[in-house]
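Hey team,

Filing this mostly as a record. A colleague (T.K.) asked me to run one chain through the structure pipeline before their review meeting, and I want the input and output archived in the tracker in case anyone asks later how it was produced. No errors, nothing strange. Just documentation.

Input sequence:
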Amino acid sequence: MSTRTSPSLPLGQIVATPNALAHITQTDITLALARHVVGDWGDLCAEDKEVNNQALAEGMRILSAYQAANGTKFWIITEADRSVTTVLLPEDY
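Output structure:
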């Protein structure tokens, strides 16, 4: 018997900046979104991860940081109202 856990974070509409799409693959994006939705905030310090955990409970904006297979660092930001999740490179912010 398997148990299924539901996503902890609604993503809303998923969008990506043109710069992110030019530098990271769809596979990198898909894998990172799968981590983001279940609360694996990626390459953040412990303090920032705790801020995200509080933001999840309080309905605030959440930012995760990941690295693509080619080494490109990118972020995923889910807005406080959970209407939009954006994939972007740090310089796009």
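Quick notes for T.K.: DSSP finds three helices and four strands in the chain. Residues 1-6 have pLDDT under 50 and may be disordered.
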